[in-house]
Design goal:
coiled coil
Length: 149
Amino acid sequence: PFLRLLEAQLQDQRREHEEELEALQNQVDAMKEEMEKQQQAFLQTLQLSPEAQVEFGLQQEITRLTNENLDLKELLEKMVKNEKKLKKQLKIYMKKVQDFEALQTIAPEERRQQERNMQVAVQRKEKDFQGMLEYYNEDEPLLIRNLIT
């Protein structure tokens, strides 16, 4: 069993290495193509008049900036989505904190009464369900505190 596990891990590593190698090779090929295109463009610009060279350079820069803008817009969209997700999580956590604070502000006598009710309910549940415990999510901080004390 141990040798099979090691062999499986070795095969997984080999497969990952081969995939990584293939990805790197594709990247190298793409860079070679890009370099060839740039060399051809450079040779063509050398044959142009100085005014045409300036115009060609400006077109290249406009193209580069347009692509960069598109990348930045995509990044902005991802960040906006992430911001919305984080705001939702923040609202959830704020509600939990408010619920917890509300439990803490209950008068001590009421809190003791709730704790007694919880203890009674817990004892019944343990008998009925052999150790299983059912409770409401909003009672969780109180339950934890009771378990600790």
